[in-house]
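User: Run a structure prediction on this.
Assistant: Running it now.
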Amino acid sequence: MRRKSSLAFCSLIAASLAALLLLSPALGTAGPERVLPKKFGLPPWSLMSLTVGHPNHGWQVRAKRIKKNKILSIKAGSEDRSYGHPALVLMLGRSAKEISKAASGSVMLVGDLSTKNGGPLSGHRSHQSGRDADVGFYVVDEAGKPAHLEKFVAFGRDGKASDGSGLRFDDWRNWLLVQSWVRDRRAGLSHIFVSRALRTRLLTYGQSQAAFKKYVPEVTALLKQPEDAEPHDDHFHVRVSCPGDQTEICREESK
């Protein structure tokens, strides 16, 4: 009996510490207090990944980590920033697979998502609640052959890399990527940020291809340059919506 009582006491202490960590402010951050309504400490929410607060003033619980493989690579420096809500992580995996299937050998370059527990992330105004991800462009070399980037490279309206490397923005594969995102009904995509120049380039390309025309209205609605941030001429920034069962704790737009 004494052993059972000791085990029960230890379990109670462990559960209390876990609850305390979940409901306490994050140490060493300037983010919001990490306090959740009581019900989110109970099943089924206590077993789920949670995205809390605003994209620019939030945090996350039990995030999913995106992992590199033969069709998806993680940009150097983003390894510890590769955590997000499963809806986002799984969407990126599906789109990488779809592009690789359409164009053999294609590798998606993924940059920052969020840190494991979310909160302020250096170099970003958002990326705090696990719903944002940076994704590099698909590119071709001077001979028109697919090339793989290891870092983000900026491109102008003419599709040429601004670093003089001779690389070019791959209209076809980048359109396939954006189209893949807008067709992905499971993720609940809410934004795709990119520079106005590249937005115009992509929409012009999509409109010129009979097979892609029907997706142009949806892409037009989601593709935009952010008003209060860098123009995003070297990567896409995608954001998924708040999960339907977490609207009590999740906020769609920035604070």
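The helical segments are 2-23, 86-102, 171-183, 196-208, 216-222.
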